[in-house]
Amino acid sequence: MNFYYFKTYAVLIVVSVCLLSMQSCKPKTAQSAAGGDASKSFVAPGKYDEFYNIVSGGFNGQVAVYGIPSGRLFRIIPVFSQSAESGYGFSEETKPMLNTSHGFVPWDDQHHIALSQTKGEHDGRWAFANGNNTPRIARIDLTTFRTSEILEIPNSAGNHASPFITENSEYILAATRFSIPLDDQNGDVPINTYKQNFKGSISFVSINPTSGEMNIAFQIRTPGVNFDLSRAGKGKSHGWFFLSCYNSEKANTLLEVNASAKDKDFVMAINWKKAEEYLKAGKAKKQAVKYAHNVYDENTHTATSTIKTEVLVLDPADCPDMLYLIPCPKSPHGTDVDPTGEYIAASGKLAASIPVFSFTKIQKAIADKAFDGEYDGIPVIKYEAALHGEVVKPGLGPLHTEFDEKGNAYTSMFVSSEIVKWRLSDLQVLDRVPTYYSIGHLSIPGGPTAKPHGKYMIAYNKITKDRYLPTGPELTQSAQLFDISGEKMKLILDFPTTGEPHYAEAIPASLLMSKQRKIYKIEENTHPYVSKGEGQSKVERKGNQVHVWMTAIRSHLTPDNIEGVKVGDEVYFHVTNLEQDWDVPHGFAIKGANTAEILVMPGETQTLKWVAEKAGMFPFYCTDFCSALHQEMSGYLRVSPAGSNVALHFSTGTNKPSVSTPVGSLADTSKKESE
Ligand code: RUQ
Ligand code: CUA
Hints:
- 8% of the residues lie in helices and 42% in strands.
- By secondary structure, the protein is mainly beta.
- The N and C termini lie far apart (96 Å).
- Bound molecules: (dicuprio-$l^{3}-sulfanyl)-sulfanyl-copper and dinuclear copper ion (CUA).
- (dicuprio-$l^{3}-sulfanyl)-sulfanyl-copper (RUQ) is lined by residues 111, 160, 333, 399-400, 440-441, 502.
- Dinuclear copper ion is lined by residues 552, 586, 622, 624-626, 630, 633.
């Protein structure tokens, strides 16, 4: 064992001890973190933040929006999980958003955010988010901060390496974490046939440049490794993607040990322009699959879910020069491309250094065929031939790297719980700061683009410990804001977050503020159950379904007295908010509703389904404090026994009871009091 290897080995032992004991090596100077220049994060009352920070929600399945530098929480955007606050995933209109090939899936684990780009810069149109567990990608409209579309990804299990966007938003890449038997294969095989039967898959999701609509353009079949994270090339490396892979051992049990056996795993380099050529040349094969494509229409205020049944698949065996592998030490996690597109930093979770690859050298190595054999038919580029250099002794457990606008890189170190700043040109470590504690992702505004906005850096830590007032067994999540405008990184704020944030992207407020949608125009509302004025409100029965066309305006609901509903009826409250002013939502709830309320924006129609389970009186009311007389914004629904002769009847402002109809008459049409 030579000295270099001895040192590497010693570091690995420390790393392994920390990882195996499931805890991090804490910095010993916890006290020194107190203080910080808080004035730099102060946003005076009435003033705006400089950045919108769009933060993944981890296991809550949502996306949250914070202000930077204040750390103030503005909104939780429901994406992959039902939201009792807004009715998302509970209202009849939004339920289809959460449909999948597995049926209704109202939860997911949301890790990574990608903001749309034009010419390598943020364009402020859409945010994309991954669903990790039941593979999906969502598109959030940044004029409404609402989820517009969700696309399921077939041939995938664990959509972790996702979503990663190209410099003109041509594609979103989504690669599978778990290799599995493909969707059209029999998956009922012994697990120890992994090496024969399990395959990986990388999806290229196209984005319509006008509407933003996503579609799976093609997939690439790959060896059965695990994909972890990715970045698109940019500038000179535009047309390429770089992906970290681990488990090149193809282990199917005790991955902790068996997927860390080899000294090196890989970074995969994909020439997607080449893939496009093969696609055009008809090299892709159609494969039968099943996946849901869910789209929300802003005029009907309704989502539709379509099950699609085919994807186009490229097999690397038919497509030479499309894929290459670059050896990368010890279970790489983040693979990040610098603003120029020349450097690719790969963070081996168990490695003692950070290899930085050079795009120019990778191209030369390919031209020179500087290969070290093949892995499942894919050429493996010689490590040294692709290497720009290694950042030596950066810290322990490197995970993710972000970049500023001055040629510096910042890498999060989970195990040694710090951020290390280093220079891209000569790979010298320039500064290090502790994080509290055990940082996962870090984010610099514009950090993954060709033009980082710089100025701030946010750490998303995995362990909170002593940073906040304790709240029982579970503590809040701990984000930390650093000022990176000077040579030294300076901690300026701790702020708690919800869920478990992984990646986040911040974007200048000026790019989004002026284009916020304020209302939905009532004249553009084409919901089938809209009432465009109180005169259109009504109640109708269709068998055991009762449909209520209801309007909401400060401060009454119309109709507000409803009788003639019978036990067993399904009542659909289609509530249209007639307001045309900014920030005047109305809510709707009825006693016994076992879903949630619905929150209806100005000009919008949303539907709450409610089943009449017993006879009695059921008040309903507006849940959003909308005016001084908000408490008066309420009504009553009378439920009579099945078979009773109370006629269907509705009114507002009159005060006459329902007229009885002969028993058994179900064909009763509704009657409105003449006013
Ligand atoms: S990935 S730290 Cu590093 Cu999903 Cu979360
Ligand atoms: Cu409408 Cu309160």
